[in-house]
Write a structure and sequence with these properties.
CATH topology of the largest domain: Metallo-beta-lactamase, Chain A
Distance between the termini: 65 Å
Radius of gyration: 24 Å
Structural class: alpha/beta
Strand content: 15-25%
Number of strands: 23
Strand order of the largest sheet: 1-2-3-4-5-6
CATH superfamily of the largest domain: Ribonuclease Z/Hydroxyacylglutathione hydrolase-like
Shape: globular
Length: 465
C-alpha cells in the first residue's frame, strides 16, 4: 500500500495519495490546486489516479479536483450532502471503495460542514483499519470549527452538536492504533489549538486532545464556539469556488517582470502591491502604498486578508521568490498577479522609484508605555480572539487582522496608532495596510505582545524586594 502525505506550511494543509501497488490504482484526498507532486509520485510508484475525494468544501484554499480530472480523467467524490455544479460521485456512510487489495471506507462526519466525511484506510478487505483521513473533523490537538462556510445555512450550534456526535459516536470508537491523518496542522484558521504534529493515533488523541475529553454536549458546544480565529474574507469566496466549475490553474504562465514605470502605475491605480520581503527589510525601505506580507510567514492566507480574490496583484520579492509567490497566491484562487519586481537583500530599489521609498516606523515597548501613560496613542491588538483571552495590553482596541481591512472606519483618528500582534510579523502587515489606506501616523510594536509581557515580568522582578 502507498499512503503519502503532502504538507505545505504556508497553508498548514495536508493532502494524501493512496495507492494499491498490486493494481496500480490510486486516489488523491483533499488535493491542492498545483497537482504536479501527485502526478510525479503516481508515475514514480506506477499508479493511475482514478479518483479524487474531497472530505468537504474547503474554505481556506482552492482544491485541485478539477485539475486532476483534466490531467488524469479522475472522478470526484464528496459526501452525500454536497451540491456542486459539476458531476460528482456521492459517497455514502459505510460505502467501501476498492483499489484492489487496498480498501477505503467512507464515514460521514458532519460538524465542520454538513457534507464532511472521513476516509478509513485498510490494507486489504476485512482487515483492521490502519489510518483514518479525518479532513477538518478531528485534528491533532483540536476539532474543526463549526462556523465557517455553512453558517448561513444552519446555525453554528447545530453544526457543533453534529461535531460532538461525530467525535464521540464515530471517530473515538475506532481502535486506538488507527493513525489520524487530518487535512490541517498548526496555524490553520480551521481550528484554534492545532498541533505541530502531522499525524497521531486515535488512542493518543483520546488521551491528550483537550477538545475530545469527556464532557456534556452543551459543554462541548460552548467550548467549540468560543475563541475561534477570525476567518479571512476570502474563505467564503474559496468555498463557493470549490462548489462550481472554475478556470484551471495555468502552470504554463510565468509571471512577468515589471518595469519601474509599470510598478509606479500599479501603485497609483487599484492594483494591490504586496511586498513579500522580511519585516526588517520592509521597515528599512519600501515603496509607499505597498503592504508587507512576508514570504517567510503565512503568505497566501495573509494575502487573502489584505486583498480580495479578484484584485490585481503586483509583487515585490527577493530574486527567485517571484514565481513561487504567485503559485502560493493561486492556491487560494488569486490568479491575477500582473507581475513582479525583485529587490536584493541590500534593499536597493531602482533609481526611478527612489522618490517613493519610505521607512516604516516601529515602536519599542518602553515608547509604547510612555504613550499609553500620556493617553497619546490608539493601540490596536490584531491577534485572534483566543490569543487575546490569554492576556491583553490594557486599553487596547481589538480588531483581528482578518477583519482590519473592513473595519478601518472603526479606528479613532484623533491620535497616532500603534498596532501589535504576538511577535511582530502580523503587525507589520497591519501597519502597512493602514498606511496604504491613507492613515499616516501608524507604527507597529517591536516584538509584539511577547516583548511587552517580558518587559512587564522584568519590571515586576526589579520591583520585588
Amino acid at each position: 500500500m502507498i499512503l503519502e502525505q503532502y504538507y505545505i506550511e504556508c497553508l498548514s494543509h495536508a493532502s494524501y495519495l493512496i495507492g494499491d501497488e498490486t493494481t496500480g490504482r490510486a486516489v488523491v484526498v483533499d488535493p491542492r490546486r498545483d497537482i504536479s507532486d501527485y502526478l510525479a509520485d503516481a508515475r514514480r510508484f506506477g499508479l493511475t489516479i482514478e479518483g479524487v475525494i474531497n472530505t468537504h468544501f474547503h474554505a481556506d484554499f482552492v482544491s485541485g479536483h478539477l485539475e486532476l480530472v483534466n490531467a488524469a480523467g479522475a472522478w470526484i467524490g464528496f459526501g452525500e450532502a454536497a451540491e456542486t455544479d459539476y458531476p460528482i460521485r456521492r459517497l455514502a456512510d459505510g460505502e467501501r471503495l476498492s483499489l484492489g487489495e487496498v480498501e477505503l471506507e467512507i464515514l460521514t462526519t458532519p460538524g465542520h460542514t454538513w457534507e464532511s466525511i472521513s476516509v478509513l484506510v485498510r490494507e486489504r478487505p476485512g482487515a483492521d483499519a490502519v489510518a483514518v483521513l479525518t479532513g477538518d473533523s478531528l485534528f491533532i490537538g483540536d476539532v474543526g470549527r463549526p462556523d465557517l462556510v455553512n453558517a448561513a445555512e444552519s446555525s453554528t450550534t447545530e453544526l457543533a452538536r453534529a461535531m460532538y456526535r461525530t467525535i464521540h459516536d464515530k471517530l473515538l470508537r475506532l481502535p486506538d492504533d488507527v493513525v489520524v491523518m487530518p487535512a490541517h496542522g498548526a496555524g490553520s484558521s480551521c481550528g484554534k489549538n492545532l498541533s505541530t504534529e502531522l499525524t497521531s493515533t486515535i488512542g493518543e488523541q483520546r488521551r491528550t486532545n483537550p477538545s475530545v475529553q469527556p464532557m456534556t454536549e452543551d459543554e462541548f458546544v460552548a467550548m467549540l464556539t468560543a475563541g475561534q480565529p477570525a476567518a479571512p474574507a476570502y474563505f467564503t469566496a474559496d468555498a463557493a469556488m470549490n462548489k462550481r466549475v472554475h478556470p484551471l490553474l495555468r502552470t504554463d504562465r510565468a509571471v512577468p517582470e515589471l518595469t519601474a514605470t509599470a510598478l509606479r502605475a500599479a501603485l497609483e491605480s487599484d492594483v494591490r502591491v504586496l511586498d513579500a520581503r522580511t519585516v526588517e527589510d520592509f521597515a528599512a525601505g519600501h515603496l509607499r502604498g505597498s503592504v508587507n506580507v512576508g514570504f517567510d510567514g503565512r503568505f497566501a492566507e495573509t494575502a487573502g486578508m489584505v486583498a480580495d480574490i479578484g484584485d490585481q496583484i503586483a509583487l515585490i520579492t527577493y530574486p527567485g521568490d517571484e514565481q513561487q509567490a504567485a503559485i502560493r497566491l493561486a492556491r487560494i484562487g488569486v490568479d491575477n498577479v500582473i507581475g513582479y519586481l525583485t529587490v536584493d537583500r541590500d534593499g536597493e530599489f531602482p533609481a526611478a522609484l527612489t522618490d517613493l521609498v519610505r521607512t516604516a516606523p516601529r515602536t519599542t515597548v518602553a515608547e509604547l508605555d510612555e504613550l499609553l501613560a500620556a493617553d497619546a496613542v490608539t493601540l490596536i491588538d490584531i491577534r485572534n480572539p483566543g490569543e487575546r483571552e490569554a492576556g491583553a495590553i490594557p486599553g487596547s482596541l481589538h480588531i483581528p487582522l482578518a477583519q482590519l481591512r473592513l473595519r478601518v472606519d472603526d479606528i479613532p483618528a484623533d491620535k497616532p496608532i500603534v498596532v501589535h500582534c504576538a511577535g511582530g510579523w502580523r503587525s507589520s502587515v497591519a501597519a502597512s495596510l493602514l498606511r496604504a489606506n491613507g492613515i499616516a501616523q501608524v507604527s507597529d510594536l517591536l516584538g509584539g505582545y511577547q516583548a511587552w509581557t517580558q518587559a512587564q515580568r522584568k519590571e515586576h522582578r526589579c520591583a520585588t524586594p
